[in-house]
Write a structure and sequence with these properties.
about 120 residues; mainly beta; Jelly Rolls; two-stranded antiparallel ribbon
């Protein structure tokens, strides 16, 4: 059986614009991984949204901001870890950097805006 491992440096991945700032999608569904892993720089407020299938796991690396999760608003700072289950409306606000682990891997069609 062939090993299927990946070592990829975040700086070797081109950034892409995302609703909340800029993401480097380091590990993706194209890699055959069971999750996707992104380094995201939050610089602007996106529209509140949710995912029907995906759960997101944020690890705040630096900066500060706020997460709106459902009807709650929670301040975030480095070291915080956030679990966002499927169907939870959410939005990030402020200027901070996160690692985002998405399970199953990110599917852009699984993002639904909250009016």
């Amino acid at each position: 059986m062939k090993d299927h491992w990946i070592v990829r440096n975040v700086e070797d991945v081109a950034p892409v614009a995302c609703p909340c700032g800029e993401a480097r999608r380091v590990i993706t569904a194209d890699d055959g991984a069971p999750v996707s892993i992104h380094r995201t720089v939050i610089t602007r407020s996106a529209q509140k949204h949710y995912h029907k299938k995906a759960a997101e796991h944020y690890v705040v690396l630096q900066g500060t901001g706020e997460m709106e999760l459902g009807n709650a608003r929670v301040a975030v700072r480095p070291g915080d870890m956030i679990f966002i289950p499927p169907l939870t409306p959410h939005v990030a606000r402020g200027e901070f950097v996160i690692i985002n682990v998405v399970c199953p891997p990110l599917d852009p069609s699984d993002e639904y805006l909250v009016p």
